[in-house]
Amino acid sequence: MTTEHEPNGLIGASLKRVEDPPLITGKGCYVDDINLPGMLHLAFQRSPYPHAKILSIDVGKAKTMPGVEAVITGNDISEKLNLSSSQVLPKMKIPPHPVLARGAVHCVGAPVAAVVAKTRAQAEDAANSIDVEYEALPGVSNAEAALEPGAPLAREEIDGNICYTMVKNGGDVDKAFAIADHIFTMHIASPRQVALAMEPRGIVASPDPFGKNLTLWLSTQGPHRARAEIANTLGFPEHKIHLIAPDVGGGFGSKGPVYREDIVACHLALKLRKPIKWVATRSEDFITTIQGRDQAMTSEMALRKDGKILGLKVKVVANLGAYLHSSTAGPPQRMLGMACGSYQIKDCRVEIVAVFTNTCPTGPYRGAGRPESVLNIERLLDKAAAVLGMDRLEIRRKNFIQPDQFPYTTGTGVEYDSGDYEKPLREALKMSNYDDLLRQRDERRKRGELVGVGFSTFVEPSGGAGFESGTVRVERTGEITVLTGSSSHGQGHETSWAQIAAELMKTSMDHVTILHGDTHVSQQGTGTFGSRSAVVGGGALAIAAERVIEKGKRIAAHLVEAAPEDLVQSDGGFAVKGVPDKTISWRQIAGAAYSGRVPEGMEIGLQETAFFDPKREAWGFGTHVALVSIDRDTGKFTIERLVLVDDCGVVINPMIVEGQIHGGVAQGLGEAMREQMLYSDDGQVQTGTFMNYAIMRAADMPPMILGETITPNPFNPLGVKGVGECGTNGAPPSVANALMDALAPLGIEHVDMPYTAPKLWALIRNAERKN
Amino acid sequence: MFPASFAYVAARSVEEALELMVKHGEEGKLLAGGHSLIPAMKLRLQSPRTLIDLGTVPGLRGVRVDGDHLVIGALTVHTDVASSELVRKHLLGLADATSVIGDIQVRNRGTIGGSVAHADPAADLPVILTALNASFTVQSLSGSRSIAVDDFFTDFFTTAMNSDEILTEIHVPIPATGTGSAYAKLPHPASGYVVVSAGALIARQASGSCTAARVAIGGLGTGPLRAVATELELQGKPLTPQIIAAAAAKAAEETEPVEDSYAGVEYKCHVATVYARKAIEAAVERVKS
Ligand SMILES: Cc1cc2nc3c(=O)[nH]c(=O)nc-3n(C[C@H](O)[C@H](O)[C@H](O)COP(=O)(O)OP(=O)(O)OC[C@H]3O[C@@H](n4cnc5c(N)ncnc54)[C@H](O)[C@@H]3O)c2cc1C
Predict the structure, then answer these.
(1) At what angle do helices A422-432 and A392-399 cross, to 10 degrees?
(2) H or E element at residue A23
(3) I need a labelling partner for B125 at 20 to 30 A (CA). Which of A339, A551, A556, B18 fits?
(4) Which residues line ligand 1 (CB under 6 A)?
């Protein structure tokens, strides 16, 4: 960036979030807080079966119940009301995903009938009274089991259970394996997690009296994308839909796609010409909102005896669940770009097999394929060290991509933009007192304790998925309004964006208003996911601000009859170089801009819009170090120390970045220690409530020690990289490596997450019996 | 997450509640703190047509001494039990158990009588009340009777109370001097309810040997179980760590726990011995002080 101004220190300041006071005092406005005159309520009857044929649906009673205005089943609506994958791959199988089941259900919770009534209670009661006769069909819940010959068909409409396969080859992997001194294999299955945003999904759909326009309040991460998907599915003109994301209580990836209930609500609102609200109950949210992870990775690594990694083969079997949402197909493909982690491995092959099962659909969940990829390569590195009898640090350092190799193209053809992996590693070793940790571990081991130290030295891509937009407008008053296509659902855009705008425009944050989350307010947008907001949305904002500053400077120069080159930014506007007293404020400039006192040929007004597409992802990196112990008596697993050093480039608001890391670590440790959505073999839900799904809670968190290194992103106007997912990407593998280190003296080589006490206890006991 | 519709009646006396129970029969349900009943109704596992609220009945709350017993009103909320001076003086084991139930909101609403009447196999209070040898006063229109704890919990969510009876009081013998009680719990990581737990009441002579022991285990059966083998093993023996460990090792004998999505049978039996040891050790520790 080439602005000639001194930074005023807002970028990089730990400022309290301006959006918090209403949110933490219960004054937020979420979808469920939207109440419109005459609004009706929607409720669903859902499948209790993982897989079944629908023999009959009796809605007779429901139709006569008090307050009921409409009852529909899949047969009452067009087949076109069907959701699908946004990505269509060659030979991909795309079975129907009707918004209400047609003839069969393929997972528990699939909606079979919908009821609209005057009150929510009436709608729920009527939905509950609908009698559905099913014929149970065999089901399958595990993706690897679904690939076995003779496995039940999850989707009877297609042949086999495979949705798609992909293979990517880099270099000459066969040769690498042929010349290797050592080859080993590893199998890792990552547990399925539930996103569990604090606010469940919900929508209010309100048509105009003629059904020509539709206003939607939707709990979504990407208003514009959701609008496009809804418009496409309904066959309704996109520009006639006004979609508002009010306060959104978390998403973690799960509120990216559009869901069946959203389409049913829109369809019925248009049909009845009345506003309709639907908000998921926690029970509904648990079993119908896309879930994350659930990938099995089988890997083979080829090593030279000096520690050089020669080749890598990874096969991912990914569980997509029963239906394809727009984003379901995506996460497993992360392995294509990330299999090799931070290491120079040119000869590699990655294969993806994406599988249908009779479970809730999966999709992006904080990390979205990154956590699985990082876990895989970081476990492989530890295992490689063990195979060679080499130090775990040494093998990493030996294979790291070096700072002078960037931009670095990996074996699978992905370009890493920039990095310096040794930097956070060194910092993390220092902060964790690594040598001392090892000493402690060894002493405690002598006393019979099970103690382990582990780390991960990871990379993570951020800021992908195309463009983001930003508009900067100087109002007549000289105050600044920013419109962003990137919409916050907890990330603190209203604070960070104001910091960026105020710093670039040299004004105070109070003079900046951030508008987002409304398709009629901000121009097109992509949304908030994949750690992209600051990188892409922040970038667009910076570019738009630069353009406004350029124009403002020319107007200011015109006003003082100086050359633009003679002006510099000063507090609140511009000053004439060398004459600091001679200032022109944004208010004066705006006054001129809107009254036409602008240079000859210049358009009036003071607003600029930028669409920024970085065209490459920003690869953040870091090192996480963990010290763990296991209680032999009960199997209880404790993380005693966790040091997290992340490099996300320039930091806009350190407090918000820390919050992102804390939250990500909580969800990552949830995966490592406690959380797993379990299904019976045929797909019956076993952990569909907080009574049995052990979400990570504040009191369960270990203390975290955060550190940072800053390597500015050379390809970004602000120098930033994403940070939202480093907690889920980097922390679990460090804990996994520490746990396996703790168990190594017992000869235990592998255990899958989550590391629950009963699981660890059984493992230790079996190992001790053998020894 | 939305209950079926129901009517609500606030009872003004035990008699009125009993009459309402007769009137509504199967379709009526007593409401105490509502912290087991209402979640079940929201999941539509239960759909009573009428709730008969006991919360409005005077005289069912509080802890008092009656001779050599503590008497706890059935409507006393967990927080009040845990913080009662009398309970803290005489029945530390009960204070332990009541303080590890759910979270503060649950403890401020849930009642001792509701927990006992509900007879959840993963609940805390049935276990410690078994160790403390409590008895339960239940009342019907035809009078009242007392049921000993060992006869009370008959099956999963089932007690020896008849459907026309209300639990009004919990009687707990005040332990003699030289006795200590304690409760130890392994909570489920999701629900916070019991995976396994143990309650112990141990009497020790000045010489250091055990004169009486009641040890109860939760999580291994349809309700609380007496760890009879453990009790026998302690009887008359010096309460050394070795003896306690050996006794605790028998805590899961002759039990038939069932596997669930969190833990298997072998694990439950093993941790029962660990928690039995913790509870006995803590109870013995309290004799000293
Ligand atoms: C989030 C949460 C966490 C919890 N965690 C725990 C835990 O860790 N450990 C634990 O033990 N419990 C736990 N509980 C349960 C809690 O202790 C309940 O409050 C208790 O089990 C029931 O008491 P209640 O007063 O709420 O009874 P209610 O829910 O009102 O009633 C329960 C049942 O007992 C009947 N009943 C109530 N009172 C009487 C009476 N006097 N006579 C006859 N029948 C009666 C009712 O009809 C109903 O069938 C938890 C509850 C919640 C919501």
Answers:
(1) 160
(2) helix A20-24
(3) B18
(4) B 29-37, 39, 54, 74, 101-102, 106, 110-111, 113-115, 117-118, 120, 123-125, 166-167, 192-193
Distance CA B36, CA B78 (A): 13
Q: How many angstroms separate the CA atoms of A753 and A734, rounded?
A: 12
Interface test with B, best of A128, A631, A692 (most B CBs within 10 A): A692
Using one digit for the tens of pLDDT, what is the confidence trace for B87-97?
999 999 999 99
Name the 3-class secondary structure at A501.
helix
Using one digit for the tens of pLDDT, what is the confidence trace for A456-465?
999 999 888 7
- Contact of A692 with A419, CB cutoff 8 Å: no
B218 residue type, one letter: G
Q: How far is the CA of A380 from the centre of ligand 1 (A)?
A: 49
The CATH class, in words, for B179-285 is alpha beta
> Cα A320–A325–A331 angle (5° rounding)?
50
- Which of B1, B16, B35 has most ligand 1 atoms within 8 Å of CB, for mutation? B35
DSSP state of A477: T
Assess whether pLDDT exceeds 80 at residue A483: yes
pLDDT tens digits, residue range B43-80? 999 999 999 999 999 999 999 999 999 999 999 999 99
Tokens of B223: 């309700």
Domains of chain A in sequence order:
34-137+198-250+255-288 (3.90.1170.50), 291-463+616-770 (3.30.365.10), 465-612 (3.30.365.10)
**What gap in Å lies between CA A519 and CA A634, rounded to an integer?**
54
pTM confidence score: 0.95
Q: Please tell me the distance from the alpha carbon of residue B259 to that of residue A60, in angstroms, as a whole number.
A: 42
As annotated, the residues of chain B forming the CATH 3.30.465.10 domain(s) are 63-173
In this structure, the number of other CB atoms found within 10 A of the CB of residue A712 comes to 14
User: Which of 3.30.465.10, 3.40.50.1400, 1.10.260.40, 3.40.630.30 would CATH assign to domain B63-173?
Assistant: 3.30.465.10
Residues of chain B within CATH 3.30.390.50 domain(s) are 179-285
In the prediction, which pLDDT does A257 show? 97
Q: Tell me the backbone φ, ψ of residue A665, rounded to 5 degrees.
A: -65, -40
Q: Which residue of B has its CA nearest to A636?
A: B186
A686 interfacial to chain B (CB closer than 8 Å): yes
Give which of A610, A465, A488 is closest to A540, Cα–Cα. A610
Asked if A121 and B44 come within 8 Å (Cβ–Cβ), the reply is no
Does domain B7-53 match CATH 3.30.540.10? Answer: no
**A330 to chain B, minimum CA–CA distance in Å?**
30
Mean pLDDT score of chain A: 96
- At residue A485 the predicted structure's pLDDT band, cuts being 50, 70 and 90, is confident
Residues B286 and B281: their CA atoms lie apart, in Å, by 9
Q: Where in chain B is the domain with CATH 3.30.43.10?
A: 7-53
Q: Which residues pair with A44 in a beta bridge?
A: A114
Gap from CA of B108 to ligand 1 centroid (Å): 12
Give the DSSP H/E element, type plus range, for residue A288: helix A282-288
Centre a 10 Å sphere on the Cβ of residue A374 and count the other Cβ atoms it contains: 32
| Residues of chain B positioned with their CB less than 8 A from the CB of A674 | 189-190
